[in-house]
Each structure stands twice: as structure tokens, then as C-alpha cells.
Amino acid sequence: MDKKVVVVTGGSRGIGKAISLTLAKKGYIVAFLYQGNATKAEETLEEVRGYSPLSSSFKCNVSDEEDVKSVRKEIEQKYGKDIFALVNNAGITRDALIPMMRSEDWKNVLDVNLSGTFYMIREFSRIFLKNKEGRIVNISSVSGVLGNPGQANYSASKAGIIGLTKTVAREFAKKGITANCVAPGFVETDMTKDLDRSAIENIIPLQRLAKPEDIADAVLFLIEAPYITGIVLPVDGGLAI
Ligand code: NAP
After folding, report:
1. How far, in Å, is the centroid of ligand 1 from the Cα of 62?
2. Per DSSP, what are the bridge partners of residue 103?
3. Annotation marks residue 154 as catalytic
4. How far apart are CA 109 and CA 180, in angstroms?
5. How many Å apart are CA 223 and CA 204, to the nearest integer?
């Protein structure tokens, strides 16, 4: 196989869909994961295959380590060891102020966002280690950098992703593997559809929400950057200045 395979979690909707399409347009084969919305995944796969016909979708809950092990085997069966990059994008929010935050919502967000990212890295790094080459890009958030009232669970998970990424970068650097984070601000997706848009635009120096493609371009840049590792790249319209 002469084309490179990139695995993208949460690749069926929102930012993950834009990442899948951007990479497909660049000639990568995309293997994207989704959790449950099969109809949306099929629609996205059809679009992605329009640019990269060998791409596929896989159902996998990243917070379930057995599911992650099985999907790694399935992807390896389909594409062999020619897997070049992993983009950990799947994420959820369960917002509440701390006194009202249910333990279940604390745990679910940490399980999907942080443990899911760790399980994926643990499984796919075996392939990168054998190949002596690999790129890992993790989607953090401005919320993990600055903190955000109502998002204790989410901010902690996204800050955790930054610490995890820096350790992965240090642990694997001598093996030819890079690991970096993208930290988006507010992005136009299902996750932000209920927020007060004009209030948000007022606090963003560039005065607009990001489009999913703005984040996808940063992910592509890091996948194609052999000499950058351990960084957190803000793509937030200046929100975290
Ligand atoms: P989204 O529109 O809600 O899409 C979430 C994607 O993740 C879907 O493909 C969903 O699959 C998948 N997913 C959810 N839980 C999963 C699980 N347990 N296992 C596997 N896949 C799962 O989200 P988004 O706004 O594009 O956000 C993508 C990433 O960017 C997240 O990590 C988010 O925290 C981060 N981010 C977003 C913003 C923003 O403003 N939107 C800002 C900063 C950071 P199904 O469709 O099958 O459920």
C-alpha cells in the first residue's frame, strides 16, 4: 500500500468529520471511528470515499478498552501495519457547576475524553513503535488550558490530555513518533449549538467561532510536521491570549 492510513476517533461528525475530509482530500486513507450514530457515519464515509476510496468507518466506544483492542485488530487486518497517524478527537461534554455536578457526569467525561485517548495511544503506539514512525495528534481545548466555570470534568479531561501528550512526546521521541495537541476555542458543531453565539463572538478577538475546517487544517499541519513534538497549538481566534 503506497498511501498512508490515518485513524481518527469521532470522525463521523463535527470537527472529526472535517479532519477526515481534509486528510482524504490530501490523499490519506482515513479509518474513522464513531460511537453510535451509524447513519451519520455512513453519510460521512460516502463523502470521504469521494476523495479517498479505500477509507473505512468502524464502530468503537473509545472509553471501553476491550472495544479499542478489537478495533485496533480490525484496522490492522484491513490495512496491515501501514498506519501512519492517530488523531484522538472523540469527546463529550456534561456541563454543570461543581456543587451540582453528578459523579456519573464527572466520570463519563474523564472516561471518554482522557481514558479513551490513553487506550487509543496504548493500542496504536505498538504499530508506530514497530514502524519506527508515527504521528499522534490529540484534540484538547482552550478549556483545558484556561479552565471554564461549569466544565470541571471537561477542563480536567482536556488538561489531562495535555499532560498525557507531553509524556507521550518525551517517551516516544527517540522512536520516531511525535505527539502534539490542538487546543480549539469555540467551534461551530453540535457541541456548541445551544450556546449564545453573539455573546461568544464578543469575547473572541477574531470575532467569530472557528469552522471545523480551521481545526482540521491545524491537525493536517501537525501530521505533516516531522520536527514538532510536545506542543499545544491553540486554534481559538485569540481567545487564550
Ligand atoms: P461532536 O460534534 O459532538 O462530535 C463528537 C464525535 O465524537 C462524534 O463523531 C461521536 O460519534 C464521537 N464520540 C462521542 N463519544 C464517543 C465515544 N465514547 N467513542 C467514540 N466516539 C465517540 O463534537 P465536536 O464539537 O466535533 O468535538 C470534537 C472534539 O473537539 C472533542 O474532543 C471536543 O472536546 C473538542 N473540542 C470541541 C470544541 C467545540 O467548540 N466544538 C472546542 C474545543 C474542543 P457519534 O456520532 O457516533 O456519537
Report:
1. 11
2. none
3. yes
4. 21
5. 27
Ligand 1 atom with the shortest distance to the CA of 38: 47
8 backbone dihedrals φ, ψ, rounded to 5°:
-125, 120
Pick from 31, 35, 72, 34: nearest CA to 52? 31
Strand, coil or helix: 193: coil
Q: pLDDT confidence of 1, banded at 50, 70, 90?
A: very low
pLDDT in tens, 8-51: 999 999 999 999 999 999 999 999 999 999 999 999 999 999 99
Counting atoms of ligand 1 from 1, which one is nearest the CA of 210? 40
Measure 89 CA to ligand 1 centroid, in angstroms.
6
DSSP 8-state class, residue 219:
H
Q: SS3 sequence, 87-121?
A: EECCCCCCCECHHHCCHHHHHHHHHHHHHHHHHHH
Read off the C-alpha cell for 48: 470521504
Residue 112 CA to ligand 1 center (angstroms) comes to: 10
